[in-house]
Amino acid sequence: MATGLEWTSATELAQLIRRVKLSPVELVEHLLARIEQVNPTIKEELAAYVRSPEGSTPKGKWADKKFVEEMGSAEFNAKLEKMQLADFHGHGFVFRAVWKKDAKGNLLDEAGQQVKDDDPDRWKKAVHLKDIHLEKGMHCADCHFTIDSHGDGKLYGELRAATAIKCQDCHGTIQKISDLKTTGNAGGQDLAKTRTPSAKARSSRKSPAVSLRSRMPKRRCINS
Ligand code: HEC
Ligand code: HEC
Questions:
Q1: Contact 142/212 with Cβ under 8 angstroms?
Q2: Band of residue 113 on the pLDDT scale cut at 50, 70, 90
Q3: Burial of residue 97, with CB atoms counted within 10 A of its CB: 0-12 exposed, 13-18 middle, 19 or more buried
Q4: What is the pLDDT of residues 144-166, one digit of tens each?
Q5: Using an 8 Å Cβ cutoff, are 106 and 115 in contact?
Q6: Which listed residue, 92, 119, 127, 157, has the most CB atoms within 10 A of its CB?
Q7: 3-state DSSP call for residue 221?
Q8: What is the pLDDT of residue 182?
Q9: pTM
Q10: Which residue ranges have their beta carbon within 6 Å of ligand 1?
Q11: Is the Cβ atom of 167 under 6 angstroms away from ligand 2?
Q12: Which among 213, 134, 224 has a CA at the least distance from the CA of 172?
């Protein structure tokens, strides 16, 4: 539930003032401090948009560069009570891990039993609902290229439009087995020709099966 004077209704505030439980000066000072906290100046807003051109940024903690740098690390996640953030290299987007929960938002373990909010091992007991690719050991860099974040020189109407890869570039379609060439708007990369940072080939093919080597160290996943 929302708390604090800024959330209290005008009639309740009037009553508090009448009963001398709150002074009008105290109230105004509180509201001015609150405005300063959540209403950035135009300059602060512009500075935040330069790093992350997204509507909610200026008012979010992720407008702070230091916050973004620390976000997602194990030490940072250990401080969070209600959520865990992903570790990524991005423009300040915040990616939250998704957990198995009941209809009331309580964390659930593998057997569907409630995990207590104050259990120090709650993030180990609760089920992290991973994307299948993450579960198999793939990472953002296995599907995304520098061009996805730094652009190809063209202006796109929205972010997704600049993505190089499409699902069918790895999985193929019902008519055609994948030839491992990216076909998104910023596409053109040939996964069969690219190498991992340790100079190993990204893919190998024993028709019709294709194996993909993850760009992350010591992980290999097979796409058949
Ligand atoms: C298995 C491949 C794969 C992995 C792994 C992957 N992505 Fe993507 N991502 C895609 C595809 C394909 C699209 C384009 C989807 C479309 O065309 O609708 C995409 C789109 C996106 C977009 C644009 C979405 C939008 O709404 O405009 C962002 C941002 C993004 N990915 C970030 C990430 C991050 C961060 C990670 C790692 C946490 C990640 N992706 C991991 C395949 C992947
Ligand atoms: C870079 C290549 C790549 C891209 C792009 C990609 N995938 Fe995958 N996908 C894989 C690999 C590798 C696996 C794991 C296969 C295995 O080990 O069984 C997988 C597994 C899957 C599975 C599970 C299949 C199963 O039989 O269990 C689904 C579903 C899936 N991907 C959907 C998608 C969707 C939807 C997209 C687009 C958003 C996408 N994939 C993009 C490589 C890719």
A1: yes
A2: very high
A3: middle
A4: 888 887 888 888 887 778 899 99
A5: yes
A6: 92
A7: strand
A8: 93
A9: 0.73
A10: 86, 88, 90, 95, 133, 138, 140, 142-144, 159-160, 163, 165-167
A11: yes
A12: 224
pLDDT tens digits, residue range 68-85? 888 878 888 988 888 898
CA distances from 193 to 58, 147, 165, 182, 200 (A): 41, 17, 15, 12, 10
Ligand nearest to the CA of 89: 1
Q: What per-residue confidence (pLDDT) applies to 223? A: 40
Which of 160, 165, 170, 189 for a ligand 2 pocket mutation test, highest count of atoms within 8 Å of Cβ? 170
pLDDT band of 135, cuts 50, 70, 90: confident
Which ligand approaches the C-alpha of residue 169 most closely? 2
User: Is residue 83 within 8 Å of residue 96, measured between CB atoms?
Assistant: yes
Residue 83 and residue 97 in contact, taking contact as beta carbons nearer than 8 Å: yes
CB 76 within 8 A of CB 97: no
The pLDDT score that the predictor gives to residue 90 is 61
DSSP string of 72-101, one letter each residue: TSHHHHHT-SS--B----SSS---B--B-B
Among protein residues, the one whose CA lies closest to atom 36 of ligand 2: 167
- Would the CB of 186 count as within 6 Å of ligand 2? no
What is the number of the ligand 1 atom nearest to the C-alpha of 139?
5
Give the contacts of 82 (CB within 8 A, at least 6 positions apart).
none
DSSP, collapsed to helix, strand or coil, labels residue 108 as strand
What does the pLDDT average to over 47-66?
Answer: 83
